[in-house]
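# nightly structure sweep
# worker-07 picked up a monomer target from the shared queue
# config: single-sequence mode, recycle default, output format = structure tokens
# input follows
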Amino acid sequence: MEAVPILEVENLSVSFHTAEGKMNAVRNVSFSIGKGESVGIVGESGSGKSVTVLSIMGLIPSPPGKIESGRVLFHGENLFEKKIEEINEIRGNQIAMIFQEPMTSLNPIHTCGKQIMESVLIHTEKSKQEAYDRALYLMNIVGIPNAEKRMKEYPHQLSGGMRQRVMIAMALANDPEILIADEPTTALDVTIQAQVLKLLHDLKEQFNSSIIMITHDIGVIAELCERIIVMYNGQIVEMCLYRDLFADPLHPYSEGLLHSIPKMTKDEKLVSIKGQVPNPFEEISGCSFAPRCQYQQEICLKEDPELLEVCPGRFARCHFWDRTK
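# output follows
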């Protein structure tokens, strides 16, 4: 049974107006997420992943950014129509975000404990003692050793992995319904990456939060997410259950991402996707992936394919999605 959506993104388009011209960062993106569901959004840098979730959070700077069209519905209410006070009440409370770089996201002049407490005090009527108890509880929940001591320490006194755990504790401060993780393991070594992913998985089970995971590493998705959204040049090019994509990618870009995952065999070489990501300031006729695609045909250079539901729950944006059938 499909989960009832608590968040729906409908035909979202976002642009940035710069000295170089207008850049279309996100183009007609639509997806939804249900209660307790985890969705991964994957793609190269510049594919529109982070801009999509920053739009959901109401964090697109304007100017230069502009929501050109679309809606973001949270429990059926359009977030784009709400006042800033209402957005501030939702942001960090019902929808929370774990940012990519904890060292730049955490305040260097406040202790880690105080920053978690602040998240509680802003959105609730708890006393300082109750906020302290909640922060200490969360520090323990996310696996920070000597939590009481760490409460009094500053971000620079912690390792990268511990700082990321503090960020996760802050995001969980008010039991959010949706947790957005933007490249939460990028700056961490492989061992710490695995620990953070397991932590997010365990917390999802414990709190029944929905998770949107942003990553450029398609291998990370399998550790946490049930569904996967593949983005390229601001568009969704494939969307399905992660196991379906890993078994049979329908879009050539998805296929290329899978082939670029390092293998365990000693003699097998890494396969890269040829060519470069399109210039975001240039208008493209036809499929934006066509110049890099090994299956390119004349129609690909002339007509931009639609995102089609090729079978129940599975979407692909390719003229030849059934090329292997």
